[in-house]
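Feature request disguised as a bug report, sorry. It would help if multi-protein outputs had a clear separator. Right now it looks like this:
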Amino acid sequence: MTQPQQAGPDQLAFQQYRTLLFSVGYRILGTAADAEDVVQDAWLKWSAADRSQVADPKAYLTRIVSNLAMERLRSTRHQRETYVGPWLPEPILTGPDTTDGVATTDSVSMALLVVLETLSPLERAVFVLKEVFAFSYAEIAEAVERSEAAVRQAAHRAREHVQARRPRFTADRARQRDVTERFFAATAGGDINTLMELLSPDVTLWTDGGGKVRQALKPVVGLETVARWFAALGTTTYQGIEPGQMRAELTRINGGPGVVFRGPDRVVATLTFDFDPEGRISTIHNVANPDKLYAVADGTRHELP
């Protein structure tokens, strides 16, 4: 009988950092598919490298992934600029919520990833490595192949940009879960009054169909409009699926409470939420582009560092 081949030290070293590499790639790129491709390309480069010259595998691999991700981001910018309707990141299923993981879950939230879309590829990579993974400026400069002064400047610009568009407040995770559960129940029951209690007065709904399925091409804004949109879900045929055939489940998406809608044979859409300081829903991100639902459909839960 043939014995299973044991992984070599090079493969073991790569596997040790694989989750980190995916996490870096996903936050820079905003799509799980592209992040997986970048990690695979990094493995090919790692396999071909003279590893006797590699003193720090973690830094070496992070550099490869960061540069591959920035390169891919530059090449896909035009596609995103000409995208039909709002471009939203590709949702991923994440592990259970923990009080220790508030900073981690916020760093992978749909709301932050949307803001990161407005940064340059360099600013985005620097922000992710510095603010999420706490790399030093010297380490980042080596990773992105820029001077330390250029990296500090990019970090400053990125931090100011993100803070201006992503106000921070103390998030009550239990309150978020409770509001999401009540929203879920009110949507299923068509309870518009409860929906209006749970939504912020200037709530905004972003829908991403990518031109593949019918969705609003502009943000839907305002308490009553958004409430009516969701109150009608339980009585409306959606993408050819009758209300009675649609299943919805509460789950963890991008580090926060979310909803997955499934038809008889496919995942149809996801919802994720952002909350105002009072705990009301201020933003809803609805991803329905089938090209962005593979990561949710395959059921993999990512434990992201």
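(second protein starts here, but nothing in the output says so)
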Amino acid sequence: MSELPPLREVISKYGLSASKALGQNFLFDHQLLSRIAKVPGKIDGAEVFEVGPGPGGLTRALLQGGASVTAVERDRRCIPALEELGGFFPGKLRVIEGDALEVDAPALFEGKPHVVANLPYNVGTALLVGWLSAEWEPWWASLTLMFQKEVAERIVAAAGTEHYGRLAVLAQWRSTPKIAMNVHRSAFTPPPKVMSAVVHIVPAEAPEGVRLKTLENLTAAAFGQRRKMLRQSLKGVPGALEAMETLGIDSARRAETVTMAEFVALARTLG
């Protein structure tokens, strides 16, 4: 097999540049990309779903790790570069031109893939919320996702900390997220204005007797007016004040002090 050309050479050959409109920032550091590809654990022989591969930096690290990669890319300028990369790994790379928000990802896989992606900043949170809100057990084995550091901190935040809010409760009530590594802005081309972090999320069992919709309504009301006491912010949620009294949750508290387990207990009580 002929040798894989350097990524910068590929980008130059196809005249690629990061598109601001698509929220793109390219990563060239092969050691860093290899570290990200190793976050899910052993990927040799595993299926991987990648969103927004761009010119294929992370894609090549995943393929070199032995994974079979399905990549969804909406920037058609990048498709020829990805197809060329596929030629170096016959039968291991499937490229789909399209919008990841519209692709029926579960239908693409026989087993449960690892999702690994340097997500475009402008759709990252929407994709994550969709994956966390879908049926449980989920269609994916794990999520390894690059976010702006502030978003990553909101996903893993504990109650009582400044980043704790709806996203933390949604991520943590039936999965276990952790920050796997921080990534300096200088690693990207062009460098974004903010630092980034890679979050690794593995699914856990969903607590019984809890409806996602109820939990979402509770956290929307509570964190929508996070400076107010719960007796104010939750008064519009039918049964919430009575449920707090039943569970011994002080209605003078504010949303950011309520733990994920307490929100789950409230949602279960409300049915």
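Even a blank line would do. Unrelated, but nice: The mean pLDDT is 94.
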